[in-house]
Amino acid sequence: RTQAEMAHTCRGTINLSTAHIDTEDSCNIVLSNGGRTYHLKANSEVERQRWVTALELAKAKAIRMRNNQSDDSGDEEPASQSDKSELHGTLKTLSSKLEDLSTCHELIAKHGAALQRSLSELENLRLPADSSEKIKAVNERATLFRITSNAMINACRDFLDLAETHSRKWQRALQYEREQRIRLEETIEQLAKQHNSLERACRGAPGLSSSTTGITSTTKGSLQSAKGEASDEDEETEYFDAMEDAPAFITVTADPKHHRRSGSNLSGASEGHPEDWNLEDSVFESSNQSSYNESTCKDLQPKKRRRTRIPDKPNYSLNLWSIMKNCIGKELSKIPMPVNFNEPLSMLQRLTEDLEYHELLDKAVNCESSTEQMCFVAAFSVSSYSTTVHRTAKPFNPLLGETYELDRLEEFGFRSLCEQVSHHPPAAAHHVFSKRGWTLWQEITIASKFRGKYLSIMPLGTIHLEFHSSGNHYVWRKVTSTVHNIIVGKLWIDQSGEIEIVNHKSKDKCQLKFTPYSYFSRDVPRKVTGVVSDADGKAHYVMSGTWDEKMECSKIVHSSHGSTSTEGKQKTVYQTLSPKVLWKKYSLPENAENMYFFSDLALTLNEPEERVAPTDSRLRPDQRLMESGRWDEANVEKQRLEEKQRAVRRRREAEAVEALEEGKDYEGYIPLWFERKVDAVTGELICIYKGGYWEAKEKQDWSLCPDIF
């Protein structure tokens, strides 16, 4: 399939050019791409090998087609001019050849008539009988030749007329398409300007104050998470601001001393005990006290002094529209971008930033109840988005085999390792071990699309979190991030979608909804709401807050079914105790606006360290040059690294094709510190840490590391 055809395939289609093909045993095949995995079973080992060979050949062909399309794709303006000149040259050559054909037609007609006359004259001469017969036979053949030549000449004349007619049609169609493209670009630019004007007008309009009458979310019927889907985002999906939805559930704060309600209309209610909600509880803290992060970190002072600032961001101007107008509809990871759009961190370091509020997981270890623990896990899943609110710059795409370690075992009790395990599609594997009782691992593939006015970033893959003592195993996925005002106006980021966190041991669930921003909504911007329920579906806690500021938890003491909304959905009324703050965002450091809005942790991520692997992101030269403010040199270095990676990829693809032609198996790129396994919980093929990195660091034996920089 071509790239254009792949953009309109049915849901469930796997793109072979970016798929992983593995064999489990003698008969089973595992085919995976991002978050989608298919398990195929053959009747015999011979049939399995035939299928694997056919799939590998098809994959190699798809890779060649994709590379040909990538090599042909460049700046569209010069291409359109060259296409225009090429079309005119082709038409000119065709006209010249048709003129030559017309000349040949005249010559054939002339010489054919002369030959016919000569043969007629010979036939009229008095010659021997056998000669007359031969001349007669030659004359018949000449007649047949003349008839055939006339038929060919007539067909050529028809072709000439048809070519002239259609060439005019093609020229008109090409001119129409050019005009449509120019008109579309002008329309997009005008829409962006109108969008920006409307935003300024709405911000200045009165009567858009926020309302605090209740917490709204979505009931079970509308909170289904896409478990088996790689992405709920369709290629043609367009988003619009929606009017404020009617609340699907309502929370009412109850008095702990008088929380019980009488009446027969509360059938099916979930009862709780307010005495369990102790303000001095060892796990939960009252919302009027200091936040957990500030009060519990006094004994976690770093033993090593870390840097608190980086060089200020240079003020370089760049025409974004001149670059982005030719990128509409293309995959972002395939568009060459200057470092002007980047921040001096790689995607591996951004992934490690999810651990900024790791104290939430340390706190969750001490929870006695799995539903209480779920609250802290939910707050942790939301906290990972707090660093994105002002971070509109793009992180560096890691090179294949690039790694990043964050060793905070002595300071905060955890060690983190990331590795780029695939380049197309870009995929990173992450593993974190904490000696305080938890392990986190994930493999994330980033799918992104530029859609004119905004950029959609869809993380694919699952996040796993396991607590050592209890064995509770939590799994969830990330939501979609959207960067608005790409062309005109101030860039801003929004998070939207739903997260379903599942404890696969106790079957507890937490369903969180990230409400997309709307001009017409009276809700608090960046709102997140959700409900924590047990395996029987009984609701225990209500989660509420914003993904850029804080998350609170309210214990449910009573629930009942309320009235039905206009859309036919039944509302649920939750009577809760006073909310308590589980997580609150750290304030940004001084002068953060000139340091890419980095948090305290982000400022230390690219700090040079000794004894790290030679593939570590800290050693990436273009990223280091950009952080130092030498952007022109960084752009040159970035192009060198990308070309070096492309050369390695072409060599690897050639080896794969050669091996397949010889009937040999070709494993392709094998990650250094991770290995692909079928996850026992989700059934997905995922990269899991296989060990060896920290031992290699201790011995300073990096012989396995490739030369990628």
From TrEMBL:
Membrane topology of this protein: Peripheral membrane protein
Keywords: Coiled coil, Lipid transport, Lipid-binding, Membrane, Phosphoprotein, Transport
Bias (Polar residues): 284-295
Main location class: membrane
GO molecular function, one term: cholesterol binding
Segments forming a coiled coil: 174-201
Top-level taxon of the source organism: Eukaryota
Residue stretches making up the PH domain: 1-60
Signal peptide: none
Gene Ontology cellular component annotations, sorted alphabetically: cytosol; perinuclear endoplasmic reticulum; plasma membrane
GO biological process: lipid transport
Protein family membership: Belongs to the OSBP family.
Protein's name in the database: Oxysterol-binding protein
Organism annotation: Jacana jacana (Wattled jacana)
Gene: Osbp2
